[in-house]
Write a structure and sequence with these properties.
The complex is a heterodimer of chains A (112) and B (211). Chain A has 112 residues and is an alpha+beta fold. Chain A has one domain: Arc Repressor Mutant, subunit A (Orthogonal Bundle). Chain B folds into two domains: 60 residues, no CATH class; 136 residues, no CATH class. The chains are: A alpha+beta (112), B mainly alpha (211).
Chain lengths: 112, 211
């Protein structure tokens, strides 16, 4: 059933962050981008747990960069969204739009 | 992130805790990312602020790694925890069974050396802990890569059982703090057993890596 391939809330946020960052997407930048835009503190563990899950699903791919001294000689792991991941984002966005169509969201905001 | 002037080390204990829960293939990127942000924060906002941030990250990261580790293999982790629970029930009863057998066999000796008997009874406490440590090691050996997830799961189950038992007992008897803390020693020893196996495996992998 193709409709089952929706992204979870945090998965959706992470994939959108990868899309925004492009070639600069690795743990630190993804975490900071999400914190900056959603104003919520995110742990690096949450980012990697989600990215690993997305990689297993085939929505993202990763590659290791060169080791750098400010990271204690450790490599950065860069991520990018695959075509399958981009399709899942589109599907999820459409589902959100479809569900919110016709709703008075300004009225709903008074409850938040 | 821009260049970092500060190259101090993050809290060692926090690093050690994260290392216990991190998969070997993710360890390099997770520790690299944490160190990069820690160095940046330490040079920008001070070491105290950076250390506090690192500890907060460590606690949240461990919680996420524990959750994702369990979700990655829920059945084998649950099976290991259930097997560990049964093994713990069997092993933790053995020292007392042995003591009862010895007491019955040499009843005349113990009745004249009652103080010695009390000392042997006290000696059962560390034996009990060693049994729990053994159980933790066995579970950790059974689940490669998820040593801490399996042992912490079992420890949480034991804590929940003890907690509910304590609530039942507390209705009829006053409970001492020392006794309550002592009852947590078993789950703690199980987790320590898991940590020992995990550390040994991590060390073996590090040694096996080409320089």
């Amino acid at each position: 059933m193709p409709g089952r391939d929706y992204l979870g809330e945090f998965e959706h946020i992470v994939v959108l962050a990868l899309m925004r960052l492009g070639d600069r997407a690795y743990g630190v930048t993804v975490r900071q981008e999400i914190e900056f835009r959603t104003k919520r503190e995110v742990s690096i563990g949450a980012i990697y747990a989600t990215l690993d899950r997305l990689e297993v699903k085939g929505y993202v791919r990763s590659r290791l960069g060169d080791p750098t001294p400010e990271r204690g000689g450790r490599s950065k792991r860069f991520f990018h969204v695959t075509a399958k991941g981009a399709a899942a984002v589109t599907r999820t966005q459409r589902a959100f739009q479809s569900m919110s169509q016709g709703l008075d969201l300004g009225f709903l905001q008074s409850y938040s | 992130m821009t260049s970092q002037a500060y190259l101090g080390q993050p809290p060692r204990l926090a690093v050690w805790f994260i290392n216990l829960f991190t998969a070997h293939e993710s360890a390099e990127s997770i520790f690299g990312d944490l160190l990069e942000e820690y160095s940046y924060l330490a040079s920008k906002s001070g070491v105290t602020f950076a250390r506090r941030w690192y500890w907060r990250q460590a606690v949240k990261t461990i919680a996420h790694l524990f959750g994702s580790g369990y979700r990655a293999a829920p059945w084998s982790t649950t099976a290991a925890a259930v097997g560990g629970f049964l093994l713990h029930r069997f092993v933790s009863g053995l020292p007392h069974k042995l003591l009862s057998a010895v007491t019955d066999r040499y009843l005349a000796f113990w009745s004249t050396h009652f103080n010695a008997y009390l000392w042997v009874l006290k000696g059962m406490m560390p034996v009990h802990l060693i049994a729990s440590l053994f159980v933790g090691c066995v579970i950790a050996l059974a689940v490669k890569g998820r040593e801490m997830v399996a042992t912490v799961t079992l420890a949480l189950v034991l804590c929940a059982l003890m907690g509910s038992a304590m609530v039942g007992v507390a209705r009829h008897l006053p409970l001492g703090v020392v006794w309550m803390l002592w009852s947590l020693a078993d789950p703690f020893a199980i987790v320590v057993g898991g940590a020992i196996v995990r550390m040994r495996r991590s060390a073996a992998i590090t040694l096996a890596k080409p320089a």
